[in-house]
Amino acid sequence: EKTRSYPSQVRIREPLSAWRTIEGIKIGSSLNEIEKINGGPVNISGFEWDYSGTIVDGAKGKLNSLGTDGAGGITGKTLLLRLDPPSTRSKSVSDDEYTKVLGAQVRRADNPVMQKINPRVYEVIVFFP
User: Fold this and answer.
1) Of 16, 45, 114, 124, which one has the greatest count of Cβ atoms within 10 A?
2) Residues near 103 by Cβ (< 8 Å), separated by ≥ 6?
3) What's the confidence (pLDDT) of residue 98?
4) C-alpha distances in angstroms, 93 versus 4, 17, 85?
5) How far is CA 70 from CA 8, 59, 60, 67, 74, in A?
6) Which residue has the higher pLDDT, 36 or 7?
7) From CA 44, how far away is CA 119, in angstroms rounded?
8) Could you tell me if 127 and 13 are in contact, meaning their C-beta atoms sit under 8 angstroms apart?
9) Taking residues 109-129, what's their average pLDDT?
10) pLDDT value for 38
């Protein structure tokens, strides 16, 4: 047992992966599904940059594993979800609307444009303390 090593994290990106969180979040889960599980909107970064579509915290919802934004920054994070807009995004929002959800700015996911886009999980990272 002393020689065993434990992973610090597991990354899931395979579209057909059987992996799911205990709440049922998986590759392909939509923002709307995550918000339903959370009991309200989450906070998410904009698209088309290094941390594109990353849910940064659960905004005091039920998904404590997403972390909470405390006075010292994000705490308690054991789950990281990254979302992408679907390839059909251009059918749901105009280019002008889409520019409102781009970049490093964090916004509440109940933003009307984000709701129309309804991005889906493309990466799940589970951290082990």
Assistant:
1) 114
2) 46, 47, 48, 49
3) 92
4) 50, 29, 11
5) 23, 10, 10, 9, 6
6) 36
7) 11
8) no
9) 91
10) 94
Residue 119 near residue 30, CB atoms below 8 Å: yes
Give the Cα separation of 44 and 47 in Å (integer): 9
Residue 71 above 60 pLDDT?
no
Question: Cα torsion for 122, 70, 63, 26, to the nearest 10°?
Answer: 10
Neighbour count for residue 64 (Cβ, 10 Å): 15
pLDDT band at 1 (very low <50, low <70, confident <90, very high): low
Phi, psi at residue 112, to the nearest 5°?
Answer: -55, -40
Residues 6+ apart with CB under 8 A from 51: 45, 82, 104
